[in-house]
Amino acid sequence: MATKNTGNKTAAKKTKAKKTTKAKKTTKAKKTTKAKKTTKAKKAKKITTTKKITTTKKTKAARTTKKTKARASKKTAPDLPPVDHSPERIEWLLQALARGYPGTTTALHWETPVQLLVATILSAQCTDERVNKVTPAVFERFPTTAALAAAPQQELERLIHSTGFFRAKARSIKGAAAVIAEQHGSEVPRSMEAMVALPGVARKTANVVLGTAHGLATGVVVDTHVKRLAGRLGLSAQTNTDKIERDLMTVIPQERWVSFGHQLILHGRAVCRARKPHCTECALAPRCPSADRTAP
Prior knowledge:
- By secondary structure, the protein is mainly α.
- The termini are far apart.
- The model is unreliable at 73-77 (pLDDT under 50).
- The chain has helices at 2-76, 87-100, 113-122, 128-141, 145-149, 153-160, 166-183, 192-196, 203-212, 224-232, 241-251, 257-270, 291-294.
- The chain is elongated and about 130 Å long.
- The protein has a single domain, classed as Hypothetical protein, domain 2 (Endonuclease III, domain 1), CATH 1.10.340.30.
């Protein structure tokens, strides 16, 4: 009888142990399943959140781009008068400019072509007056093309600091000087192709140097003044400087390209200013389609 009871107890324990083990496995399985579901839900939520953030960023970026384009459109697409390229009017404007600004050249101070190149690079986003105050010390410290190419970056930056964008300008000056010294025998190139291949040199800078230092009419200098006046005078309806230059090169005789650019720059500084043009004092007013629009 005792043996039978012992057997029953042992069987009961085994059954209980099996149930406990099964219960533990079931609980563990449930926890694992729940954990997997939770992890999957978190991942799904994270992906959804990321998508929402990305969508929001794209939407904001699109709105910003749209606003920027709208602002740019307002700034770069002014109410310009119709373009008038009649030969008689062009000749009249050229003669008026020649009378008002005879023998005009750049306001930058220079003695050698490489000095003019350096001064022109420095004049970007800076007044010629400020550049003329800075360049004497630069040319005294680095008098040759080779010296400019080997100039310590930080020292050159310090000398030109007040012209703005001094780090980029220092790199351009050193880079251009190095190419000129190594590939052109320390002589500033005499072609547009070679000039625009120099670091930091675009068409405007190239036109200034080629036209003023070498007397080569390779194009028309288009700075902010020329861009503004070309529109106001009805010479171009474009807002891109390269396209404006092409328009001017089409209607202005090549022998006048160099002087025309200098004269228009001076006229823009002295009379046809951006905010308050002095139309009543302007010699070009009789044939300027914007005289009645811009007069204060």
